[in-house]
Amino acid sequence: MSQRTVIGVLGLGEAGGAFSADLAAAGAQVRGYDPAVPAGPGLVAASSEADAATGADLVLSVNRSAVAVEVMEAGIGALPEGSVWADLNTASPAKKERLAEIAERHGIAFADIAIMAPVPGPRLQVPMLVSGPGAVRAAELLSGFGARVEVLDGPPGLAATRKLLRSVYFKGMAASIVEALEAARAAGFEDLLRENIIADLTAAGESTVERIVSGTYQHAVRRTDEMAAATEMLTDLGVTPSMAAGSRDLHARLSEDS
């Protein structure tokens, strides 16, 4: 990959900082901007979103969903024709579609990139999915510097959908484990519950998902009462039963639908 390839990175936190450093080390000219984090060694320190985007072949927006539109509107006008704006923020498919519409109005190709695993460790080689009109070009540029990018044949929002569906499962499970351990700590049984969780996760196999799903539907009525009791217990322990109450309500809905 030619050193003349210019990549603007907006957001130099954990992910943006790692990506920008790895891209620069691999030979890209990286123009970095973050109002709260200074550009690291090897980067061209930009003074604004527009400055970072000036002359770029590709812009990586690695901020937060809450500011994704604002950041794009501040910088996209500086991009030259034929470049790509890639949004790596964890945003809804609807927001990715809105970003793509803004990019199209400016004559710029848009890429929806989903980061599919924690960045520390693999850094730029973390698995990523990309969709949208700029997907192929974004993947070509990033892959040339060692990134692992899978192109999805679909519109902006498809990559985000794939990521967020996994997030519902994985982040929901993680939150339930944290809440359960917090309650177990309050009840004096944290070590025991931690051992139970480790044993369950270790024993999981190909049939686990189907067993969980079928059992949830089959026993929805009984489990509604069980999770109502768990919600009450957590409240008595002084633990906010966010996940327990959500589980109670989901089982109640399933029992009504059956």
Automatic annotation (TrEMBL):
Top-level taxon: Bacteria
InterPro entries according to UniProt: 6-PGluconate_DH-like_C_sf, 6PGD_dom2, 6PGDH_NADP-bd, NAD(P)-bd_dom_sf, Pgluconate_DH_NAD-bd_C
Record domain 6-phosphogluconate dehydrogenase NADP-binding: where: 7-115
Pfam families: DUF1932, NAD_binding_2
Occurrences of domain Phosphogluconate dehydrogenase NAD-binding putative C-terminal (ranges): 184-253
Name of protein: DUF1932 domain-containing protein
Organism annotation: Saccharopolyspora ipomoeae
Biological classification of the source: Bacteria, Bacillati, Actinomycetota, Actinomycetes, Pseudonocardiales
